[in-house]
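BACKBONE GEOMETRY TOKENS:
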Amino acid sequence: MFERHGRVGGLCFTLSEGYKSFDLGANYVTPAYRETLKLARSVGARTYRSRQYIAARVPEIDPGYGPLKYTEMTDLVREIHDPQGNPERDAQGRIDHIPWPTLVLAILRYIVCRFRVRRAIDSPWFDRIHEHPDLCVTFGQWLDSNGLNALRSLFEICITLMGYGEINDIAAPYALKFMSLGTFIPVVLRQVPLVGWLFPWPRSFVHGFQRLWEAVSWRLNVRHDVTVERIVRDAASAPPTQDSHKHPIQIDMEFPVGIFNTDETNPVTLWFDYLVVASARVHSLGDRMDIDSYEHQRLKAVTTFAYCMTTFHPEGGFKLPQPVVCVVPFTFEGNPDSRPPRPWAVVQLWPEQTPMLQCYTKLPDAMAGEGFHQDLMLSVRTGAENLVSRLGGKRAGSTDPEEVLWEHYEQWPYFGHVSAAEMAKGFFRDLDQMQGYRNTYWVGGATNFELVEVIVRSAKALVEKHFLGRA
């Protein structure tokens, strides 16, 4: 296994401070994570009950435009939204709320609807999803057609906040895969007084999600800091050596010479029988991989979002009212490109050990393909500082850069996905047929859904289908 980073885990990224672990990427597991939890048990990775959420209604126009208001999550999920996702208000300007009986009935109805589509959605692959035109629509359309608009606010918190896009844009199969019954039921029941303590989900790993994959990697052949220069998948085009005739996959790469000397790299060429690609940037691999027109026609439909994580320390004894604060509304009027992007969530998991804040920001779609550059990072950081200021805090060292305690910025190409229309045209059927073409196999979020358990299950199913039993 060749890893371009100096660590394993991909979007599972963990750092430690104050003797506590902070997940900057993937965070949670639920009872639906059967394969992931099985791996966790095999390496002794322990979990704990995840911290509580609260919502902050932050006026978009700074400052003095209405008061900051904190809202309990149970109130937020009852808000009535119009088809565009905006809260509906009464004559006095107050947000309308769904009656509790109506919400409970909608939850029960979703459980029934989700159960009915389990065979199409819970399969390891989406290769036959095009046979279900009722599912190849946006999630907003699916909710409307099934009389489930009462759950729009609930799903917006789960889906939009987690970086998967807006309800009216994300394809229904993705949302339904994410909101499996094994995730939906325990998470909903946790909000019920008294009963919630019997359902301690979701949970997080004590030492972080990345450390789980580190423990798993100890049993594998993994090389870090590898720069892949070129991949050639035809023996005829490989150098005429004994190895090239035995193995059709040629990989030219560089990696550090030694543990204590990383200034020099060692170029090497190796040959293999099969290639398994796990990358969020499947549509940009042509720079170093001999992707032909057959593959390009299938992979070009995949797009990604740009999701960012910023961490910093606040001044003084600033403390959030709850460890996780969802910042609403997620969408707002006006041009989002005209000001720094605002975080959708701010987290302060362990204020007793360290006041460090984590801010999650999704860049506007127009910026998603720009990649990392300094101006973009400064814009995201400014948006995070502005939000914390609205919440009553201030970044330590904001007036004197030399006093900055610590900060981290990470920008990921996140959620490789296709549109509902591409699903209907048979994207996943074609992708399944492409598995094994030129001795190449494709795994990862773009081949199914950007969720740890889904990626693990689909990768396991691919190995069982294509590799088990081979001599």
